[in-house]
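Subject: Sanity check before I submit

Could someone independently write out the structure tokens for this chain? I want to compare against mine line by line before I put it in a report. The sequence has 156 residues.
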Amino acid sequence: MEKNNLMSRLDEIIEKIKDTKIEEIELETETERIRIKQYLGPKEVVSGGTSVPAPIVEIKEEIKPESVKTEVETTQKYHVLKSPLVGTFYRSPSPGAPPFVEEGDVVSKGQVVCIIEALKVMNEIESDVNGKIVKILVENGQPVEYGQELMYIETT
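---
Independent answer below. Compare away.
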């Protein structure tokens, strides 16, 4: 797709969602994946105990011009470790501690590779295969969804 056409489509999508409560939208074609996140700000409590979004609106654009073919090859070549729950992803057991694993590390089945915090409970996520960490797909402290890809592991 031509870059100018893509930018005009992005501007159109951003304009349509900026006055809504939509926080994130993701579109995917055969050759592109576009994710737009709208930060609605911290929640404010108003009289009556109802929470409403703060009036600050930021829009973040993330464009990944990856082809579907590349994604299929990647997932077929490596084992994909997926999130078993919704929560916050952490690479280390505590702030300031070294990460459980780094890209290039060899892991064993059952070895803890990260933590996902859900409802104030720290859930240790273990590797389900023996292999080498090829790519860590999530940043420390980032929210994750159920089934979201966390890491690619080259099985041995």
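---
OP: Matches mine. For the report I'm noting this point. The domain at 78-155 is CATH 2.40.50.100 (OB fold (Dihydrolipoamide Acetyltransferase, E2P)).
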